[in-house]
Amino acid sequence: MAKSQLPQTWDVPLIFRQRLGDAVGRQRLMKADGHLLLVLHKPPSGGASLRIGRYFWKSPEGVWQGHEPGGRSITLANHLAEYGEAIDQLDKLEGQASTASQFFDLMSELEPLRRATRNLHRVLQEAREAAPEDRDLLNFRDRAYELERSAELTYGDVKNGLDFAMAKQAEAQAASSHRMAVSAHRLNLLAAFFFPLATISAVLGANVQHGWEGIPPPVPFFVMLATGFVGGALLAGFVSATRK
Fold this sequence. Notes:
The protein has about 240 residues and is α+β, with helices and mostly antiparallel strands. It has two domains: about 15-170, no CATH class; about 180-244, no CATH class. The protein has helices at about 15-20, 75-95, 100-130, 135-205, 220-244; strands at about 30, 35-40, 55-60, 65-70, 70-75. The protein has a five-stranded antiparallel beta sheet, with helices on one face. Strand 4 (about 65-70) and strand 5 form a beta hairpin. The relative contact order is 0.08. The mean pLDDT is about 80.
């Protein structure tokens, strides 16, 4: 028979040991012959997918005992307190986050904790219904509800922070793209303005017979400048009108 995850000293119904596999599985409640067994998860950290089980047994006499792998005893109150500390820590980090990357890392850690807290509350609600006379379970259930609500609120704050950071980053990129577009347009205008002049200068400076050789200088030079500037202004105006 495979080794049970429950302590051998626990006088629990055999069906509890038979229903537990090698892995902890989902968080759930087991009940038989007046015994209750809560199969819960240690608060997840770092977004890890591996879940560490914790087991809380209530005997028919109303005595609670807790156990986790490694032989360490733990109370249900301490178990809930660890969840509270984990949520508070992420809530503090949320207040310090400012970039999309920081908010995304927080969401990666908070999402498994949020799911675990939700399932924890569900299991304790089932345990409360199975043992309505147990006032400790009532208080544990209420505490689990507070933890679930805190996790949901923190998750909402982180998501809003992530959305804002991404919108701010998109706005900055849009502004940068606009500045680049304006600079490119100015460069196009400058190139268009001097293009005719550069073209005329290149053609007339190639020692081609153009009929202006007999005109005394500097008349051809000024005619060339005037023609180039007029052509450049017309071309720059065309480029500007095309952009609009």
